[in-house]
Structure prediction request, 260 residues.
Amino acid sequence: MSTKISNWPAATPLWVDLGVDHPEAAKAFYADLFGWEFVSGGQEAGGYQLAQLRGRAVAGMGPKQDPGTPTSWTTFLASDDVDLTAKKIVASGGQLLAEPFDVDQSGRMALAADSSGATFGVWQAGTHIGAERVNEHGALCWNELHTRDYSAARSFYAEVFDVSYQDVSEEGLVYSTIRRPFDGREVGGVHHDTALPDHTPNHWMTWFASDYVAGTATRAVELGATLLGPVEENALGRMVVVRGPQGEVFGVIDAPRTSD
Prediction:
């Protein structure tokens, strides 16, 4: 079971999208790598496209709003009231990059940076619930925050989204899973990433599932991407981090054998 037809509970990472300099090239890359097909977001969408797997939405893609910004995947967190969430973001030391606004009938959204500068989106569903297919090959399966300010970041998201945490740290790794308030389900992670290069900001990382991680990694390189390390294996399965042809970084990991 990997499809979703109802609204995602608040605080769930429910959507990712990518702004690029060359949309057609990006579409060709992800269509080949993951089998995505693309449909227009509508006449007022400014070139925004919905990526689909077998007729269900998995991600968004479009031209950059600001050509000077880095190419990166943006994680959106679910909210039942974007305007209230926006107020909490500011009160908790974050910054609004785009005040709440309506996206036709699709939903209402805001863009923000947390107290340590990591960018994320907030989405209140209308007709568009976010990802409709997850946890299978070519679909979103995990989102995690890479931050130098581990304690501050945990406090920020707890204050804004009322999440709690499960510490899963081990030798050489400081990491917590994020538990949403609705049912305590683990829906994301916070990584105290002390290895971030100086020029790399704190950021949310997007992971896509694959049925064959090594094969996906090989094909990504053939399509012009770069691997930021070898394919590795741990308790969660095989994984690899990829830099796409236009500079965006994302992870590929074994497809989980669980429901959404």
Observations:
- The longest strand covers residues 95-103.
